[in-house]
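Justification of resources, computational component.

The compute hours requested in this renewal are based largely on the per-chain cost of generating structure records like the one below. Each record pairs the submitted sequence with a full structure-token output. That output is archived, and it is also reused by downstream analysis tasks.
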Amino acid sequence: MLLFTALTLLAGVLLWLDKAFWRELRQTHPPWPLYGACCCVLALLWQTDAAVLQPLSVHFLGLTTALLLFGLRLASLLATLVCGLGYLQLGWSLEHSLWVLCCAFWTLWLNALLVWWVYQFLPRHSFVYLFVAAFLNSALALCLFLLLKALPFWQQYSSAQLIDSYLLFIPLAALPEALLNGMAMTLFVIYKPEWVKTFSQRQYLDPN
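The structure output for this chain reads:
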């Protein structure tokens, strides 16, 4: 598990070593307050959790919206900041904070893969983008995140405890997570599509 964590964190850090990313970040179109607001919203969502088995908890993510708005690199950077706030404010242990960050990275990679698949193989229509890339993608993201989060605790808790007190909550939380991200992206696509990095008005709204 330690090696898996180290390799995941290394892969996440390597995403930020591209100089083009930092140049693009300085020239990006969305205003800087949007980044700060997104970080605050993510931190709030992650703090308003339902603790079911310590330190396991169920909470909304919002990572799919961050990925669709800003792209993979910046979304992973925001996830790192949120995990850092959890370590400083919520009293997470360093080991738990790093593992939660690994879960966030894998979740974002799944999101990015599905967004790429939607762009490549599905019709470029705004409904397809919102329903698959935002709605369904965020539901899968929450399921993956919470499942990965439970991996280190299979020895601490019995299978029955994990299933009855934690895993059963995952499908219950997936639908609200999908609705939250789907509604957020719908508002952005309608009112501020130029802020959405993964959405092209020319391709999705005027394909001809």
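DSSP finds ten helices and two strands in the chain. The longest strand covers residues 50-53.
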